[in-house]
Design goal:
The chain is α+β, with helices and mostly antiparallel strands. The protein contains 4 helices and 7 strands.
Length: about 160
């Protein structure tokens, strides 16, 4: 809900000004089309977010991600489960992240503290029946990149502090 309010708060004043500027020249239909595209993209994004689920059962863990991709992890399939506190940007704020990796080290499921609680993460870790690795100290993205690079998305593997 906050996402919808944020999008409306950002786009309504902008589109109001653009409508005001384009109505005298009869170019407002183009603005209306752009406005409808922004609204449609927002609705699709919110629907995708609300349809993101992780289901824990005896058969393992099943995740339906933001873009609709479904991942199933059977109880014996996971090779590592890592629950790490990660610093957010250049602040001292930390958020938990749970990484479920295959035996080959490939990322299977990632749960971020922005969307999932620590209890949710621990429940997933319990179901997979793999020892939980829990670093004692919070980590920066650089430390995480050095320790487990294959668990990060491709764009997170790029060091920006050269």
């Amino acid at each position: 809900m906050r996402g919808i309010v944020a999008v409306l708060a950002l786009t309504t004043p902008v589109f109001a000004v653009v409508y005001w500027l384009t109505i005298p020249s009869n170019a407002w239909p183009f603005v209306l089309v752009a406005h409808l595209v922004v609204i449609a993209a927002t609705v699709i994004g919110v629907a995708s977010f609300l349809n993101t689920t992780i289901i824990v059962s005896r058969a393992g863990v099943r995740e339906r991600g933001f873009f609709g991709r479904t991942v199933r992890v059977a109880p014996g399939e996971a090779g590592a489960v890592i629950l790490v506190q990660v610093y957010e940007g250049s602040t001292l704020d930390v958020l938990p992240q749970l990484f479920v990796a295959s035996r080959q080290g490939r990322l299977l499921i990632r749960m971020r503290g922005q969307f999932w609680s620590v209890d949710d993460m621990e429940r997933v870790a319990e179901e997979l029946d793999v020892p939980l690795t829990r670093p004692e100290e919070p980590m920066t993205l650089n430390q995480l990149r050095r320790a487990w690079p294959r668990l990060l998305y491709w764009f997170e593997r790029i060091p920006f502090d050269r």
